[in-house]
Each structure stands twice: as C-alpha cells, then as structure tokens.
Amino acid sequence: DPGTDPGTPPPPMDPAEPNDSTATASLLTVVDGRVQANGTVGDGEYFGADVDLYVINLWAGSEIRLDIDARSLATPSTLDSYLRLFDATGRQLARNDDSRGSLDSQLSFTVQVTGSYFIGVSSYGNSRYDPAVDGSGRSGRTTGDYLLTVDVDAPDRPSTMTTMGFPDEAPPTHVVELLRSAAFATMGAGGNSGGRWTLDRVR
After folding, report:
1. Chain-centre distance of CA 193, in angstroms?
2. How far apart are CA 133 and CA 118, in angstroms?
3. Which of 27, 16, 36, 24 is closest to 131 using CA atoms?
4. Pick from 88, 96, 40, 41: which is nearest to 65 by CA?
5. Residues 59-103: pLDDT tens digits?
6. If you count DSSP H runs as helices and E runs as strands, how many of each does the chain have, helices first?
7. I need a surface site. Which of 3, 89, 111, 201 has the fewest CB within 10 A?
8. What are the phi and psi torsion angles at 54 (to 5°)?
9. Closest CA to 120 of 71, 80, 70, 86
C-alpha cells in the first residue's frame, strides 16, 4: 500500500553475511602475524541475535590475541561486544565480554592442537549460541560496527630435515609440495640402512 509507512529499513547486509555458523564462517588469512576484519552485528538475517563467525588455521603452540574495537573506534559504535573462541568441534575455549575498562572485548589463548579455530563476535546478551547452528542465540542488547584484530605469534618451525615421517599435526596443504621439493633431495643424508630409504621432510 503506497500510503503505508514502511518503517525503518534494516541496515545493508555485510558482504561476509551470512556467516552465522561454523559452516559459513568467513576465512581469515594471517599475513605477517596479523589479520583484521570489519563487521557489523545486526546486519544479518537474525538482527539482534546476529553472530559473525570467522575461521582461522593455526599451528600448535601459537598464541592468538583477539581484540574488538567498537566503542573505541574513531566514530564510536553502539555495539557492546561479546567475543568467543571455539575449537574445530565447536567447543568453547575462551570468552570475554569487557576489557581494559571498556565495553570492547579482548582475549588471548595458546593453541594446543594444530587445526581450525572459530572466532565468534556477537552482542552482550547473546553469549550462549551454538556456533554450529544458525540463529541459535537470543537477541543481544546492542548492534553496531566493529573492527576485529587478530594477532598470532606462531612457534618457530625448524628448517632442518626430520626422519620421523609426517606428524599428526602437519597441515595437509603442505604435504604434497614438501614431498616434491624435499623428500628425495636428502635421501643420502637420511641413510639407507638395510637397503630401505627413510622419508624425510622439511618442517
């Protein structure tokens, strides 16, 4: 009806939406120890119950630091953020509401197992959602823009050859190239005891 007030339209959807579950999480790629992402809580299908989930791949022994800037942005956001960190199964590892005397969130965590981890950004009041299920939370108390900063201190990876095969935590994307570039180059150094070559690789 042209005479009906349509009301206030919802905010424009962020390009990363939908990223409300682990299945649709936005991939973060760390460059020189840092990655940042801009987002908005409240721009998705679930409005106040909106959750932005990100996935990041980490080595065992890495220290990850997560920082939300919302109220501390140059133009302060209305978001009172809530930050959660999950392992690959969706089990919560760490969480934070407020930090440094502000309503912005921050947390640190040392990774024990190499693999994928999920970062959840939501509003205060929406802290018990299931990261595997879209829209499983409840409406938070605020909405607004934020900047997520992720800093990663990865452990030193030895550059020498090892003769222990591929450990369980080896990222699979590296295996093929490592075999091509390194395995045969050091067969002589690895030894041929009993007429059987050992398989070496670069770590």
Report:
1. 45
2. 13
3. 24
4. 96
5. 999 999 999 999 999 999 999 999 999 999 999 999 999 988 899
6. 2, 11
7. 3
8. -125, 150
9. 86
